[in-house]
Amino acid sequence: MARTILSEKMDERTPLIATVHVAPPRRRYQHNILRRFCTIALGSSLIALVVLFLLPVALLPGHRHHTPHPVGPPHHQNALTFNELQTILLETPKEEKAQEWSKYYTAGPHLAGKNYSQVTWTQERWQEFGIKADIVAYDVYINYPLGHRLALYEKKKGKSADDADTWKVKFEASLEEDVLEEDETTQLENRVPTFHGYSASGNVTAPYVYVNYGTYQDFEDLIKANISLEGKIAVAKYGGIFRGLKVKRAQDLGMVGTVIFTDPGDDGDETEENGVELYPEGPARNPSSVQRGSTQFLSVAPGDPTTPGYPSKPGVPRQPVDGAIPSIPSIPISYVDAIPILTALNGIGPSPKSFNKYWQRNLGLKYKGVEYNVGPSPDNLVLNLVNEQEYVTTPLWDVIGVINGTLADEVIVIGNHRDAWIAGGAGDPNSGSAALNEVIRSFGVALSKGWKPLRTIVFASWDGEEYGLIGSTEWVEEYLPWLTHANVAYVNVDVATVGPHFKASASPLLNKVLYEVVELVQSPNQTIAGQTVGDLWDKEISTMGSGSDFTAFQDFAGIPSIDFGFGPAAEAPGDTGGAVYHYHSNYDSFYWMNTYGDPGFHYHATVAKLWALFTARLAEAPVIPLNATDYAIALDGYISGVESKVDALIAGITSETDVDEARFRPTTPAPKGSVHDLKLSFKKLHKAARRLRKAAEAHDAWAAELAEEAGEDLPWWKWLSKLKLIFNIRKVNNKYKFLERKFLHQEGLDGRPWFKHVVFAPGLWTGYAGAVFPGLVEAIDAKDYGNAAKWVGIIEGRLWDAVGSLK
Ligand SMILES: *[C@@H]1O[C@H](CO)[C@@H](O)[C@H](O)[C@H]1NC(C)=O
Ligand SMILES: *[C@@H]1O[C@H](CO)[C@@H](O)[C@H](O)[C@H]1NC(C)=O
Ligand SMILES: *[C@@H]1O[C@H](CO)[C@@H](O)[C@H](O)[C@H]1NC(C)=O
Ligand SMILES: *[C@@H]1O[C@H](CO)[C@@H](O)[C@H](O)[C@H]1NC(C)=O
Ligand SMILES: *[C@@H]1O[C@H](CO)[C@@H](O)[C@H](O)[C@H]1NC(C)=O
Ligand SMILES: *[C@@H]1O[C@H](CO)[C@@H](O)[C@H](O)[C@H]1NC(C)=O
Ligand SMILES: [Zn+2]
User: Fold this and answer.
1) Which of 401, 459, 529, 688 is the most exposed place for a label (fewest CB within 10 A)?
2) Cβ(806)–Cβ(629) under 8 Å?
3) What is the pTM of this model?
4) What are phi and psi for residue 311, nearest 5 degrees?
5) What are φ and ψ of residue 26, in 5° steps?
6) pLDDT category, 685, cuts 50, 70, 90?
7) Distance between CA 803 and CA 257 in Å, rounded?
8) Do 732 and 703 form a contact (C-beta atoms < 8 A)?
9) Any residues with CB less than 8 A from the CB of 452 and at least 6 apart, and which?
10) pLDDT value of position 60
């Protein structure tokens, strides 16, 4: 079904750039002369004509403005040199402006599909900056909160035979975040209630069980301890895995509801227990803060769950949502609300000590008297969980801006989502939105000086990211043919800053550009004068998982993508030079950002500079600055990584990391197939990877040569050499452009066909974290070695295809 719809509904149109003229405005006689010349001299087509005669003019340095700059990108018949452009992009972004944009976006609620005035405001700003922008709407299936309740009931025995037992409310959860005098955002009348995206409506009353982080093995531990789960409500901590997967496992085990709370034990050292002052007086977590968020089963497929694989245009057929979103109600709560519920279980059922070490970590409410016994609560102690959600199919809006480049079939897309779970969202996502506006304003300044990019640049302000990457997924699904044909790279920034630590994840094709750009931008931290972002960064680039809008580009369309921003340290959020970030809470507010997150908005401006320069390098260099060797090296590393996993299995050795990871997924059944045969098949993978490395090195070397030639000034009478160079550059660029596509396997991963990339996908059992060779690794984890061998074959095929494409 999805397949037919796919071909029917997909659109070959190019957004905003319907027809693309590489030629200058039509002047009939010139056209005729060229055409005659073409017929006579070359007997070739009009396309060849355009390529042969107009691209040289477009691509290569003109005589008027040449600056000797061997490998750097020369201007292509342009009013600005690359250095001039770079100066504009480094000097235009301003702290005060970023602060102004942040203040605007965080002034009122902007849940997906709920704030059209932010859409038109964004479009108007971009147009003021000189960038043409359109609004693209999709009709998507989402929920909005209507009501909720969480209460603890206790049955009191009647005093005599005729005095009936009575249920008394022992505790009524507020389900509200405190209104703070200092923080205006928290005072808004129309602030967004605490709820979960895609949660099921329901009204359940049942005994409850504390399930630790609610990972697969946490539940298994409970089952082993004979804790009855069926018909009960799960009380889980946030952390470890994506929240939707906690709800999914509870649902699969016959539980009737899920309550998820934030434990301050996961905030590192920055806690009240350690004497740190609470927000707003200090940087520790405000006890009433609640983490909203989506419970969609994201690792199976993002986007509108009723239109998997095709765009949610009005009138399209809708699929049932079973299996894509939960069927039991869930609700997020603060630790203030969790304390009485957990304390009521003290002494009931096993304590964490009777379980493994995974139950004894980060018990941040012990100092408040919580013993973390699992329960279940006796039948006279029950929770009433009410979750009322309104499900609607409603429009949401992406804002799409375009700067036409000289080349229309080479396109750079950059984007950030605009929607937030709360009225604020100063960190997630509007630090990114503020930076994006500064990027666009900077490109606008360049345009006003007569600059025109070599490649087309598309800017996106996505809607509906929070519910399930909806705005970006639907857009990629709609424009898939065009993106497949033309998109060189996608550059995402979600959270631009909530701390001082630079972080990035990327397709290895893009590593080189990132390493270059971080050295060009000054860090806001000038403890050592002149230090750059690169000087303070550990240079770690993680693999692409999911969790933001790059997912459809990277994992579905095979477009090399990158995601970056400044955050707190990964290990202990509050640990190093940062306040605890109130993720998806009312306290992710303008006041928090201005006071703790990024006082002075220096990191906002820094991200704008990095983002603009990164985009400019991709858009302007005559030879696309991707590096295939880096990809080949990374792939070989991933292969070795998986192989050592297999070696360890054969040797019966289990590492600490393996054990930790295994907590997230089902216990493996008896092995199927031979692990030794699987081990042998890695030879084929290594061979293919070695060949890919050779091909990649040759390709990159050729590209480097061409880049150098492109920087030289050829006199006009060497037009033939010029043409040859252009031809070769186009050839090299095409190979770069399509390399990532070679890693797509059209049937998709086992059980989740939407995910087509054989190298990168979100972990099936974590939801966020990036997995490499997901098909293969999941088969090995499941000890299904026959299936793993199948995946070795698929990956090998993709590698050889990539080798062939570089020849
Ligand atoms: C881009 O170019 C096409 C074709 O020349 C034109 O129709 C479109 O309006 C242009 N878009 C922008 C944003 O300039
Ligand atoms: C939309 O956003 C603006 C700016 O943040 C805010 O002032 C306004 O209250 C919001 N509108 C609605 C309907 O929530
Ligand atoms: C939930 O169900 C109970 C028992 O059926 C009922 O008394 C109560 O009014 C319901 N609550 C809501 C909010 O509908
Ligand atoms: C769970 O129940 C089974 C069967 O009733 C029993 O053999 C086992 O010892 C129990 N386990 C625990 C941890 O109580
Ligand atoms: C600021 O820079 C100094 C010197 O490089 C470094 O030691 C320190 O950790 C940095 N601080 C932050 C918060 O990045
Ligand atoms: C590509 O990357 C490899 C390995 O990092 C490096 O040796 C080579 O110089 C790079 N080539 C180009 C053209 O950047
Ligand atoms: Zn976000």
Assistant:
1) 529
2) no
3) 0.91
4) -70, 145
5) -55, 125
6) very high
7) 51
8) yes
9) 78, 403, 404, 405, 406
10) 52
Strand pairing report for 487-492 and 561-567: parallel
Pocket of ligand 3 (CB under 6 A): 149, 203, 386
Best probe residue, ligand 2, of 104, 110, 418, 463 (max atoms within 8 Å of C-beta): 110
Q: How far apart are CA 126 and CA 414, in angstroms?
A: 14
Which residues lie closer than 8 Å to 638 by C-beta, 6 or more apart? Answer: 759, 772, 773
Q: Which of 183, 150, 347 is nearest to 258 (CA)?
A: 150
Among 222, 224, 226, which is best to mutate for testing ligand 4, by the most ligand atoms less than 8 A from CB? 226
Q: Which strand (E) or helix (H) includes residue 126?
A: helix 116-128
* Mean pLDDT, range 450-475, rounded to an integer: 98
Tell me what the mean pLDDT of segment 174-197 comes to. 97
Which-ligand-closest: CA of 122? Answer: 2
Strands 293-294 and 196-197, bridge-based pairing: parallel
User: Do 805 and 733 contact (CB within 8 A), yes or no?
Assistant: no
Contact of 328 with 200, CB cutoff 8 Å: yes
The token duo for 469 is 């990457």
Taking the centre of ligand 2 as the mean of its atom positions, its distance from the CA of residue 390, in whole angstroms, is: 21
- With bands split at pLDDT 50, 70 and 90, how would you rate the model's confidence at 771? confident
Mean pLDDT value of segment 256-281: 95
Look at ligand 4, atom 5, and give the residue with the nearest C-alpha: 226
Tell the residue number behind the tokens 């990159």, with chain if given. Answer: 700
Task: Pick the atom of ligand 4 nearest to 226's CA.
Answer: 1
The alpha carbon of 417 is separated from its chain's Cα centroid by a whole number of angstroms, namely: 10
Domains of the chain as residue ranges with CATH: 82-141+394-620 (3.40.630.10), 172-180+194-306+324-380 (3.50.30.30), 628-806 (1.20.930.40)
Q: What is the DSSP letter of 537?
A: S
Asked if residues 597 and 579 have their Cβ atoms less than 8 Å apart, the reply is yes
Measured between alpha carbons, how far is residue 472 from residues 232, 243, 476 in Å? 37, 21, 6
Between 69-73, 442-446, 459-463, 567-571, the lowest mean confidence (pLDDT) is in 69-73
Instruction: Please give the C-alpha separations between residue 205 and each of 146, 208, 348, 382, in angstroms, as whole numbers.
Output: 19, 9, 19, 6
Q: Over range 699-711, report the average pLDDT.
A: 96
**Cα separations in angstroms, 48 against 38, 41, 54, 628, 727:** 8, 12, 10, 28, 10
pLDDT value at 415 more than 70: yes
Q: Are strands 132-156 and 381-403 parallel, antiparallel or unpaired?
A: antiparallel
Q: Which protein residue has the closest C-alpha to ligand 3 atom 14?
A: 203
Tell me if 21 sits within 8 A of 50, measured CB to CB: no
Two structure tokens written together for 620 = 């302007």
Within 455-498, strands assigned E span 455-462, 487-492
Residue 601 DSSP symbol: G
The pLDDT tens digits of the residues spanning 722-738 come to 999 999 999 999 999 99
User: 763-795: string of b/e by CB count within 10 Å (b at 16+)?
Assistant: bbbbbebbbbbbbbbbbbbbbbbebbbbbbebb
List the structure tokens of 239: 């952390």
